Every structure is written in C-alpha cells, then in structure tokens.
Amino acid sequence: MVTDPMMTASRFSTRPLYLQVRDALAARIATGDWQPGAAIPNEGDLAREFGVSSGTMRKALDLLESERLLTRRQGRGTFVNDQTSDELAERYSNIRAQGGEHISGDFQILDVSEGVANDAECTRLSVREHERVCRVRRLRLCHGKPFMSEHISMPASLFPGLAKRGEFPHRITILAQEFGVLLGKGQERISIDTASPEIAEALRLAPGTPVLMLDRLIHTLDGRPAEWRLGRCHCADKFYLAEFN
Amino acid sequence: MVTDPMMTASRFSTRPLYLQVRDALAARIATGDWQPGAAIPNEGDLAREFGVSSGTMRKALDLLESERLLTRRQGRGTFVNDQTSDELAERYSNIRAQGGEHISGDFQILDVSEGVANDAECTRLSVREHERVCRVRRLRLCHGKPFMSEHISMPASLFPGLAKRGEFPHRITILAQEFGVLLGKGQERISIDTASPEIAEALRLAPGTPVLMLDRLIHTLDGRPAEWRLGRCHCADKFYLAEFN
DNA sequence: AAGTGGTCTAGACCACTCA
DNA sequence: GAGTGGTCTAGACCACTTG
Questions:
Q1: What is the pLDDT of residue B6?
Q2: DSSP letter for each residue of B96-153
C-alpha cells in the first residue's frame, strides 16, 4: 500500500527513486514512527509497500545502514539503531586514553543558556544574525579530575526548549535522538592553545600550560550545522585519534 | 574471454563473486596492466570478459571507486585514478593553513637509510624482529621555513631498493603507485609534545616549545601497515583537520 | 546517433538464524 | 523448516557526453 505523499510524486521527480525511499524511511526513524532498537519489515514487504523493486529498496536500506541509522543482520532482520548505545554514542568522541580505549568519564555542567547568536556562532553554525542558539559550558572529568573544558553552541531551532530544561544528556547523539535530529558528518580543527587564567583554573593547571584546542562542528544528516564545540583539553596521558580512508 | 586463474576457481569458492572480481581488477591496476589515467573497458564488456552479470561487475566497480582506485563519469567512461594527482596525493595530509587550504610547501630530506626494525617499528608496523625497514628523516617547509620534522619508517619488503635510490617522492601516494602498492585506511594519534633540543634546532624554535606530535600509520588496501610517520609540527598559523562520518 | 554509466525491475538461489 | 538478509542474473530504460 502506498501511503506516503512522497510516493505520489515519485515517478515525476528526477530525484532517483532509491533516494526518495531512503528519505521516507529516514523520516520514519527521525519521527520515532520506528523506535530505536525495533525491527522493521523485511525487504520484500517494504518494497511492496512502496511500490518499488526489491533491488531499489535494498539500495535505500544499504544507504541507511552506511549512515548508521539501521543495522542489518543476515538471517535475523533489519533493526533501527539506538544512537544512545555505547558504540554509536562514541561516534564523535575522538579523545582516547593511553591504551586507545574510549574515556568513560563524567561531566560537570557549568552553565546552560539561550541567546542571540554572536558573530562566531553565526559563522560556524551558518545561522542568521538574529537567530537564537543554545549554549552549554561544561567540564569533562576523568577519575574525578577535569581534563577538558567545553563551550558548546547549537541552533535553538533544532533543539527547541533545551535551555529551559534542567537535564542535559552527555552526548550529542543522545540529544539528537531525543529531538528527532539525524546526525551526519563532523569535522574538527586541532591546534595548540595556551591555557587562559579561566581555563587554567578550571583544569587545575598553571596559566600558560599548552592545551589541545579542539574546534568541532557536527552536521545533521542533510548537512546543516547542528553543534559547534570549542574544547580545551589537557591530555597528558591521552591522545586524539583521527581515522581516515 | 576468461583468462584470470581466479576465475577458474570462482564458482567453487565461498568468497562472493563481486569481491573476487574486485581483487582481479585491483591487481590489474596495481601491476600497471591498466595505467593511471587510462580508460578501462565498459561495464558490459568487462562483465562478459569475466563471465559475470553486469550487476555483479557493477558492484565490483562501485567498490573500487569507493577505494579511490577508479573514477566513473556518466556518459564518458571509467578511468584509473592517478594517485599522483593533487587531489588524491593530499589524501593523508591533514595539516591545513589558516584558511583551510592544503599547504603546498617544499621538503628537505635529511637522511634515508635501511636497517633492521627496532622495537617501536616492530610494534607499529607489525613486522617481525629481523625484518628490514626503510627510514626517511626530513623537514617540511612552508615559505622556506621549516615547520614540521618527520621520521618515517616503511617495511622494506613493500618498497624494495628504496633506500638505495637518490630520489624520494614527496608523498606516500606517489611512492606507493610507483611500487604497485595500493593504499587504504590511515589513522593518526595527535598529542602535545615539547620540542627536544634537536627538534627545536631543526624547526628554529626555543627548546621546550610545545609542538603537535603526529603519530600516523597508513595501511595498504588489504590492511598491512605500509608507513609509520612520527611528525613534530610547529603549527602556529596552521591546524590539523580531522573529518569523520 | 552512438556509446557510456546510472537507475530500476522481477525474479532465483544461497547463507544464516532461530524456534 | 520458515523467515531473514546477501548474492547473482539478464535484461530494460534513462541521463549524460561526445563526435
């Protein structure tokens, strides 16, 4: 049965069918129509529902799997990924402990607020001058000791009402899943900074100590900036891990 | 016409056909049977030559394109990538100038040698204790001024006779293409180091100046370590760019 | 107009998982 | 043994590039 409005126009659109199907399926995941962890119908049923061949449906599902929205297991079925799972939530966390393992530390929220975007935020988040952003300042701890200061800005339009909540999840992947935002590519600019008096105090360092400056931008799946983070990291026994193909 | 020895066994192997076809095509590129920049036969002809369907051939070609060995252009044809082209040669170079553009500087070779792998090289390059490695030490310059010291080690088995040559190409991608080595994934560990007296002198810094330490490992397409580079980088007006999906 | 890669179809059969 | 995803086939038609 064809129910999606998208399908009615599909045969007249120049956009490839498998991309239209992918968008429709992604929307079901974003809206929570298909819940994290749930199994979705098999390929054949989906193909019939959308009125496309199984090959086309397969190509759409392949794409969604590469975008980390689905996991397919031969003989078992296709499942909606839970972005709060350890494996997926660590997706954008590239600081590692000496041995290469992820750091399972705690966070300390310093401040959550909302306001009009400043110049830097307008540039990095590609928002207009009068648009509002949500800001978070926090410390990341390892064994109770702070090692990283984070200044985070997000377009308020993507996460409405976030600043008014008391709670704030540790990871952007969890926040995004709550708000029905699908995340995609990220990039991070890494350089050396020296700790300002404020940073030095927060990280319990001597002022002027060199720290890693991590300027990270995470986009939504469709390419809009979703989170800008400025981190200053004292990583004496840690390193940043970059992987590329 | 079926000529590849691989094909004779294909129907009895459990390895998927499209992967066997990919391997055979990759071998033609590695050996130089198909030259960089050259056009290869169209999908239909290739499918017929290998005795597979066009869909299977297509899947193999898709893979090779994602591995950056081929480029396909609708209406024109399929071409072997030239790894010495600017775009591809910069693949593993993540240091950027202020504006984000690649750095088109020069190199100064300090030393090229070959010897038995030391402990660190055995670990990082996964070679056995008695195996030989080729070593290069060099400086990278920007506007004539050195900004990065590099210590490079490569398994001598992958690049036989390299240490005895006077010439040494600037980029690992170019070297690999010369020696018929296909490159794949890379990873880089980034941390802060302070310049030793030797590094400080080479980079014309005060000893103890903080520098970015870049510990990079590049693998072959089939996953064997191909190059280990230890870089120390004074990047006052530069940054390291990490991108992830 | 001829040739190329890109999309799409409608199946068949295989490998794997689980009740 | 029933159900799932993974592989493979043999086409058709479309979009794009070039002579």
A1: 40
A2: EETTSPBP--EEEEEEEEEEE--HHHHHHHT--TT-EEEEEEEEEEETTEEEEEEEEE
- Which of A91, A94, A239 lies nearest to residue B191, judging by beta carbons? A239
Q: If contacts are CB pairs under 8 Å, which of residues 2-21 in chain B contact chain A?
A: none
**Which neighbouring-strand residues pair with A190?**
A214, B240
Q: Do A165 and A230 reside in the same domain of the chain?
A: yes
Is B218 exposed, middle or buried, given 0-12, 13-18 or 19+ CB atoms closer than 10 A?
A: buried
Q: Which of B187, B192, B214, B234 best tests the A interface by mutation, with the highest count of A CBs <10 A?
A: B192
Which amino acid, one-letter code, is at B163? A
Residues of chain B with pLDDT under 70: 1-13
List the single protein residue with the shortest CA to C1' distance from D9: B53
Q: How far apart are CA A144 and CA A106, in angstroms?
A: 7
Which residues of B fall within a CB distance of 8 Å from A221? none
pLDDT of the residue at A4: 39
Interface check A185 vs B, CB under 8 A: yes
Burial A46-73 (b: 16+ CB within 10 A, else e): bbeebebeeebbbbbbebbeebbbbbee
| CA distances for A214 relative to A188, A230, B189, B242, angstroms | 6, 6, 14, 10
Strand C contacted by B75 CB (< 7 A): yes
Statement to judge: residues B57 and B145 lie in one domain? no
Q: A159-178, pLDDT tens digit by residue?
A: 999 999 878 899 999 999 99
Q: Do B192 and A184 touch (CB under 8 A)?
A: no
Q: Which CATH number fits the domain that encloses residue A180?
A: 3.40.1410.10
Q: Which of A184, A242, A245 is closest, CB to CB, to B188?
A: A242
Digit-coded pLDDT (tens) for B24-58: 999 999 999 999 999 999 999 999 999 999 999 99
Using DSSP, state whether A15 is helix, strand or coil.
coil
Contact B55, B93 (CB under 8 A): no
Are A56 and A156 members of one domain? no
A159 and A41 in a common domain: no
- Tell me what pLDDT residue A1 has: 34
Angle, CA B86 vertex, CA B153 and CA B121 arms, to 5°: 10
Q: C-alpha angle A88/A89/A95, rounded to 5°? A: 110
Nearest partner of B184 among B119, B108, B92, B121, judged by Cα = B92
Structural domain of B28: 5-80
Q: What's the rounded Cα separation, in Å, for the pair B186 and B183?
A: 9
Nucleotide nearest to A75 (CA to C1'): D4
